[in-house]
Structure formats: structure tokens, C-alpha cells
Amino acid sequence: MSWAVVAENFPYLLRGTLYTAALSVAVILLGTTGGLVVGLLRFVPAAPLRGAVTATVEVVRATPLLLLLFFIFFGLPAIGIRIPTWPAAVLALSLWMTANTAEVVRGAIQSIPRGQTEAARSTGLTGIQTMRDVLVPQALRRMLPPFVGLCTILVKDTSLAAIIGVFELTRAAQESIERTLHPFELYLCAAAIYFCLCFPLSVLTARAERHLQRP
Amino acid sequence: MLLALAVGLGVALLSEIGGAVGRGLVRAYVEVFRNTPLLIQIFIVYFGLPQIGLKLSPFLSGLSALTLYAAAYNAEIFRAGLEAVPRGQHEAARSTGLSGAQVAGYIIVPQAVRICLPALGNNLVSLVKNSSLVSTIGMVELMFVANDISFNNFRSFEIYGAAAVLYVVLVLGLSRGLAVLERRLRRAGAAA
Question: Is B43 near chain A, with CB under 8 Å?
């Protein structure tokens, strides 16, 4: 055990952390936008479109993220689509985030009592107006806790990008380990940094949940 | 998975009966394992522990990391489930002369399990998907086999596509099965 190694490589790990944060923010922005759109598409009256969206969301959610990543990074080049590491990681993670956010959106909207829709429609609002002015504002509050929970999982899952060679915290730890041969301390240190990123989010989730239970 | 269930339940019970110290320890365990990436945990067990003299095979490393990770999530679910069983159940059981262990075993845990089931099911499903991560340390499972084949014949598109299909079948089958089990248990609960 040698903590000097950790002290020496800490700046390098912090640089990796910066990339982890950047990757997370990019994916959260893309995935949230995509998830809102896809989640709302599941309420479109056209049944074929709805079915296609549902099937896609289910497939993405049922596939391990690692496999999604490998499919995009190693699989697509085989049919001529070559994507560099960074965009591949952003694409795979965003797909995952989009599908899961879409489920959160769908769940929240469906949890709004049916009477709200009926009342809104009977006052003469169109379907789109009902969604925009009545259902979504109420559902947003309910989306928040599971959404922050998703963000926590996402920050942890950005570590998978290291496997295809994206430079971020896990990759930085791996590179430091290749230089120093101290995997135990350095991985522990990386774990501690991830903990510092994720724990506040977990606390926020718990607080949002408690807030929601109060009327 | 069975291990993760057992450890999760054990940990949750410890937090119930262990007093303040037990509860503190359990909280720390749950928070640490839930807020760090599984990949890092697997790497610590497989690459890190040998450095302090504990060498595990890829299989054992993968198994123990996955178990600890899933158990942390399960413990949290069980805790919520145990707390959801009304206190009166506990008091009534004690007053009929059952011992503390009997109350836990016959009265509280069976009810808590029924309450926890949907959340546990979700966890089981994510565990199946997370098991793909242990391929990174060379444990032979679906993902590892897929990597192996595609590095041999370079038909990565088809191979990973096929692996995805297998995972989807596995996961969707599992969720359907769990939904059926849930409905069964609910019916049993209503009849009682």
C-alpha cells in the first residue's frame, strides 16, 4: 500500500473526472431532450408509430449498455459506418438515457388521473393542448425523482466508455495503473471520486422523493 | 442472484436489529456500493485485491463484485419493504408468544417480500444486464463469447446483433415471468 502513488496521480485522475463530467452533461442534455420527445411520442394517436416507438424503447432498455456500446463501436464499422470513440460513447449513452427517460416520462404522464384528461378535453382543449397545458406540467413534478436517479446511474455508467478507449476517470485510473502498477489504491481513489459525484445526486433524489410525498 | 438476495436480506435485517451501529454500517455499505460504478468495483476486486494478497479467479471476482453490488440495491428495497409492514403485525406476533426470530421469519419477512417483489424484479433484470460487465475481466459469459467470436471472424455487426437479441429475449422473458409471479402473489394476498 502506498498512498504517495495516489497523491502523485491525483491531478491526472482529476483531469479524467473533468471528462467524465463533460461526457455526463452532454449525454444528460441529449438524452433528456430525446427522452421527452420519445416519451411524448408514446401518446400519439397513430398506433403504428406508437408501436414502433414502444418496441425500440423496450429493445434499448433490455440490452446491456456495454453491448450497445460495442455494437456501435465495433459492430457498425462492419457495415461501413465508422464512428470515433467519443461520438460512439456519447451516442450509446444518449440512446440508453433517451430510452430510460422516455419510460420515466410515460410513467409520470400515465400516473396523472384520467379525469384530468377528460375534464381538459371537455372544456374544448385539443389533444396537444391537453398534453402541453394540463398533463405535462403536473407530470414534471413526478418525473423529477426518478430522473435524478437516472442521472446518478448515468454518471456511473460513463465508466463503460473507458472500455472502448474514451479518456475519462476510469481510463485515467487505468493509465495511471499501467504506469505505477498500484491498481488497488488507484481504483479505490477513482471509486472515491465517483462517490463524490454521485452521492450528492442520490441525496437529491431522496429529498425530491420525500418532497413529493408531501402534498 | 440468489446470493445477492440472501446477502441483501441479511443486510436489511441487520439494519433492523443491529441498533444504531448496525444501521450506520449498513447505510455506509449501501451508499458506497450504490454510488460507485460497478465496473470500478469489479476492477478493484480483480486487479486491486491481488496487490494486498487476495487473488481471486475471474469467476469468483465477477461473482463477488456482482453480488455485493446487487445486494446493496436489494438491501435498500428490503429495508423499505420491512418498514412497510405495519408495526401492529410485529406486536401481535410477539404477544402470541413467538420469539423475535420467529416473528421475523414467519410474519414480517414473508409480507415484506410480497411488498418488495416488483422492485426486486427490476433489480434482477438489471443484474442480468450488468452481468455483461464481467466479460471485461475475462469471465466467460454471453458478452465474452460474443467478443471472442467477433474477434475471430470480424463479423462484429452480426455477432453483437445476435447477442443483443439473446439479451432482449432473456430480459423480456424474465420481466414477463416476474409479472405473472406478481399477479399470483397479489391474488394469494387478497385471498388471505
Answer: yes
Q: Round to whole Å and give the CA distance between A129 and B41.
A: 48
Residue of A35, A55, A157 lying closest to A107 (CA atoms): A35
User: CA angle, A193 as apex, A189 and A198 as ends, to 5°?
Assistant: 140
Of A58, A71, A187, the CB nearest to B160: A71
Are the C-beta atoms of A120 and A134 separated by less than 8 Å?
yes
> Domain A3-106+143-213 sits in which CATH superfamily?
MetI-like (1.10.3720.10)
CATH number of the domain that residue B169 is part of = 1.10.3720.10
Q: B36 CA to chain A: closest CA distance, Å?
A: 5
Q: What residue numbers bound the domain in which B12 lies?
A: 2-191
C-alpha span between A99 and A58 (Å, rounded): 8
Count how many domains chain B has.
1
Nearest to B76 by CA among A197, A205, A158, A159: A205
Could B132 and A78 be called an inter-chain contact, meaning their C-beta atoms sit closer than 8 Å?
no
Q: How far apart are CA A106 and CA A121, in angstroms?
A: 19
Cα gap B121→B125, rounded to integer Å: 6
| Domain regions of chain A by residue span | 3-106+143-213
Type of residue at B109? V
**pLDDT truncated to tens, each residue of chain B (192 aa)?**
566 666 767 776 666 665 667 778 888 888 888 888 889 898 888 888 888 777 888 888 888 888 888 888 888 888 888 888 888 888 888 888 888 788 888 888 888 888 888 888 888 888 888 888 887 776 667 777 777 777 777 677 888 888 888 888 888 888 888 888 878 777 665 544
Q: For residue A215, what is its C-alpha cell?
A: 402534498
* Phi-psi map region of B138: left, alpha, beta (phi>0 left; psi -120 to 50 alpha): left
